[in-house]
Design brief:
There is one protein chain. The chain is an alpha+beta fold. It has one domain: Nuia (3-Layer(aba) Sandwich). Helices cover 36% and strands 33% of the residues. The strands form two sheets. It has a five-stranded antiparallel sheet with strand order 3-7-6-5-4, with helices on both faces. Helix 1 runs antiparallel to helix 4. The longest helix is centred in the middle third of the chain and has 20 residues. The N and C termini lie far apart (53 Å).
């Protein structure tokens, strides 16, 4: 019997944790898990190279913890659905923090923004999820 690699296990955990989650902005967008190429460290330059982002595109690097702040915070007015979503985001954040290093968030574009929440697994593979936001 063949053992699953750690890489596949981490991807499976991220895939499971993103199931049913949406990123809410002026539109609701699914979270799509991904595995990218190998890197020594996750730098802006490595990210741009691996995801084919052009030099003329607007790219912002954001803090991983800050990205999750509003998603995991439970507000007084939340109903059960919103509370469940916050718990799911908290689980996703935990899975990523426990299994990936160099965690970062990259936002590409203006108005219609591609968001990549990405880190590096123990084998040096880029891994995480992507989503979209609309901000007018």
């Amino acid at each position: 019997m063949r053992r699953k690699s750690k890489e596949n296990e981490v991807f499976r955990l991220i895939k499971e944790a993103t199931k049913g989650l949406y990123y809410v902005s002026e539109t609701d967008a699914k979270l799509e898990p991904f595995i990218g190429g190998k890197v020594d460290a996750l730098t802006r330059e490595e990210f741009l190279k691996h995801f084919g982002v052009g030099e003329k595109e607007k790219v912002e690097e954001r803090d991983f913890e800050k990205f999750f702040e509003r998603l995991v915070k439970v507000q007084d007015w939340y109903g059960e659905h919103e509370r469940e979503m916050a718990r799911k985001y908290e689980k996703l954040q935990k899975v990523m923090k426990e299994n990936l290093r160099d965690l970062k968030v990259f936002r590409i574009g203006r108005v219609e923004i591609d968001i990549y929440v990405v880190g590096v697994d123990s084998q040096g593979n880029l891994m995480g999820f992507k989503t979209k936001a609309v901000e007018t």
